C-alpha cells in the first residue's frame, strides 16, 4: 500500500508507538512498552492493510513483553499476508533463536528465508548468516542435527 493511502490517524498512532518504543528502550519500563504495543494496535486498526504497525507490535510483544506465542502469531500472520517481505522472517528468526535449541530449526528456516528474500545490502544480512551458522553448529554439536531435515 502506498504511504499516501494510510490515514493520518493511523500514522499518528504509529508515531506514538515509535515514541513509546524509544522511551521504553531508554527506561526499560514495561508500562511504556505496553503503551507502544497499544499504539501499534490502534494504528493497525485504522489501516488494516498496513503491515508495519503489526511488525513493530510483534517485536515489542516478543522481546519486551515476553509474549513469545503472541509475537510468533503476529509474525506468522504478516508472512501469510506478504510472504515476499523479508523482515518478518528475520524478526521471527531472531525471536526463535533466543528460545533454546528446541526452536533453533525454526530460527534457521526463518533466517534462510530472510537471506533468500532480503537485498544484498540489508544491514542484518551478515548477522543472519552468522546466527544461522552458529545455530547449525550448536545443533550438530549436541546431536540434534536431525532437526535440520
Could you explain how this protein is built, in words?
- 72% of the residues lie in helices and 0% in strands.
- Helix 3 (52-64) packs parallel to helix 5 (86-97).
- The protein folds into two domains: 1-82, Serine Threonine Protein Phosphatase 5, Tetratricopeptide repeat; 86-149, no CATH class.
- It has 149 residues and is mainly alpha-helical.
- It contains seven helices and no strands.
- The mean pLDDT is 93.
- It comes from Herpetosiphon geysericola.
- This is Tetratricopeptide repeat protein.
Outline type: globular
How many angstroms does the end-to-end distance come to? 37 Å
Percent of residues in helices: over 70%
Mean pLDDT: 93
Radius of gyration, rounded?
16 Å
CATH fold label of the largest domain: Serine Threonine Protein Phosphatase 5, Tetratricopeptide repeat
- Helix and strand pattern: HHHHHHH
Largest sheet: none
Give the tally of structural domains. Answer: 2
Return the CATH architecture of the largest domain: Alpha Horseshoe
What is the class of the largest domain in the CATH system?
Mainly Alpha
The CATH H-level superfamily of the largest domain is Tetratricopeptide repeat domain
Count of helical regions: 7
The low-confidence runs, each spanning 5 or more residues with pLDDT under 50, are none
Classify the beta-strand content into a percent band: under 5%
Report the strand count: 0
Structural class: mainly alpha
Amino acid at each position: 500500500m502506498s504511504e499516501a493511502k494510510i490515514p493520518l490517524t493511523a500514522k499518528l498512532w504509529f508515531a506514538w508507538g515509535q515514541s513509546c518504543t524509544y522511551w521504553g528502550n531508554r527506561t526499560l519500563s514495561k508500562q511504556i512498552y505496553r503503551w507502544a504495543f497499544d499504539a501499534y494496535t490502534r494504528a493497525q486498526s485504522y489501516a488494516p492493510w498496513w503491515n508495519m504497525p503489526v511488525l513493530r507490535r510483534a517485536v515489542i510483544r516478543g522481546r519486551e513483553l515476553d509474549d513469545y506465542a503472541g509475537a510468533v502469531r503476529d509474525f506468522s500472520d504478516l508472512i501469510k499476508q506478504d510472504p515476499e517481505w523479508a523482515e518478518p522472517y528475520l524478526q521471527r528468526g531472531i525471536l526463535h533463536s533466543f528460545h533454546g535449541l528446541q526452536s533453533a530449526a525454526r530460527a534457521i528456516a526463518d533466517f534462510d528465508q530472510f537471506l533468500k528474500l532480503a537485498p544484498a545490502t540489508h544491514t542484518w544480512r551478515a548477522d543472519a548468516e552468522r546466527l544461522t551458522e552458529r545455530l547449525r553448529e550448536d545443533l550438530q554439536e549436541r546431536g540434534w542435527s536431525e532437526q535440520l531435515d
